[in-house]
Amino acid sequence: MHADRSGRSLAREDGWEARMLLTRSRADKAGAGREAVLEVRGLVKHFPLTQGILVKRQVGAVKAVDGVSFDLHQGETLGIVGESGCGKSTVAKLVTHLEEPTAGTIRYKGEDITKLSGRALKAVRRNIQMVFQDPYTSLNPRMTVGDIVGEPFEIHPEAAPKGDRRRKVQELLDVVGLDPAYVNRYPHQFSGGQRQRIGIARGLALRPEIIVADEPVSALDVSVQAQVVNLMERLQDEFGLSYLFIAHDLSIVRHISDRVAVMYLGRIVEIGTETEIYEHPTHPYTQALLSAVPVPDPERAERRERIVLEGDVPSPANPPSGCHFRTRCWKAQQRCAVEEPALAVPENFAGTLHDEPVHHPSACHFAAERAAVAPPVAG
Ligand SMILES: Nc1ncnc2c1ncn2[C@@H]1O[C@H](COP(=O)(O)OP(=O)(O)OP(=O)(O)O)[C@@H](O)[C@H]1O
């Protein structure tokens, strides 16, 4: 069996072919006018902080996600980046319904899925699948690869009649570049990259439209990361998938993403196309993140100005008033403490280094470009 051939035969089933036809070149994907498959608005997740052993009382809350809004368009990849603890994984869990939001809406094709339950929720969950970070711990060591990849069929038997499951699992293995003959092997018999391919095959089993990938290559060797990212890109083009791709590695996110959202302490501080964020960042936090990425070209490395942020990330249980970033920001003024900056396209901003006006939203009262040298595209 050949990967492309079986991929196409899989795609022909259940309308996947129609989605494939909708998928166009990467440059095209971030463009306006494409259908939003996911519309997230004002998403909030506060984890209660409690005290007491017998009688628990709430003494506060960890504001893991604190008002996040974005769209994910059909066939595109939206990368979400930010330091550890900024709320990326919590966004992933909310979108895949592994956590209930405190407030906000998540519309899948126009329908708010946060309000769904029972059969309606099950139907939606089929279309939004998750690929997890660590292929070493996310696969049950006592299950065969066939059982792992076919597990979603136990929950959604309508997706594959019992007699047809083995064939479907073998097709899925073939699609992700694994030998279908390995169906009876166990996870420990595979390398890290192969295990992540198994995780991806499981994510594809129900033919979802959206895949939420939470740090899918972070646990892998650098040499294997590119192979898995390239596989994900091929599968996206083949099956018209939309990706929410979460990572802290800015080079990998740049390679795969059409658009990028930068998060800090539970909020998106800047969002735009890959070029807007990496070549023309206007938020001080994005500029600081980019300035810390190693640049292999010595000439570029010399030209760039390293921005060293003062202090630690504040606790999400007690974030600063106004702009969450202000306590570490070299531009902060009184206004930043009292007025939360909206995530909006800056109206008048001074000191731009480029003639082109900025078109992408940035949550800073003093948004402006500066000479940041972006990391190269991985890969
Ligand atoms: N179930 C939970 N209960 C309490 N606090 C939580 C829970 N899950 C996450 N948090 C807290 O919410 C904040 C955001 O966590 P989250 O895992 O979403 O961040 P992240 O950006 O994905 O970081 P990392 O890359 O380290 O996973 C952190 O302060 C974390 O400790």
From TrEMBL:
Q: Which residues form a coiled coil?
A: none
Q: Show where the ABC transporter domain sits.
A: 38-290
Against Gene3D superfamilies, the record matches this protein to: P-loop containing nucleotide triphosphate hydrolases
Q: Quote one Gene Ontology molecular function term.
A: ATP binding
Task: Report keywords, A-Z.
Answer: ATP-binding, Nucleotide-binding, Transport
Q: Looking at the record's lineage, which domain of life comes first? A: Bacteria
Q: Which PROSITE patterns match?
A: ABC_TRANSPORTER_1, ABC_TRANSPORTER_2
- InterPro entries documented for this protein: AAA+_ATPase, ABC_transp_ATP-bind, ABC_transporter-like_ATP-bd, ABC_transporter-like_CS, Oligopep_ABC_C, P-loop_NTPase
The similarity annotation says: Belongs to the ABC transporter superfamily.
**What name goes with this protein?**
Dipeptide ABC transporter ATP-binding protein
Taxon lineage: Bacteria, Bacillati, Actinomycetota, Actinomycetes, Kitasatosporales
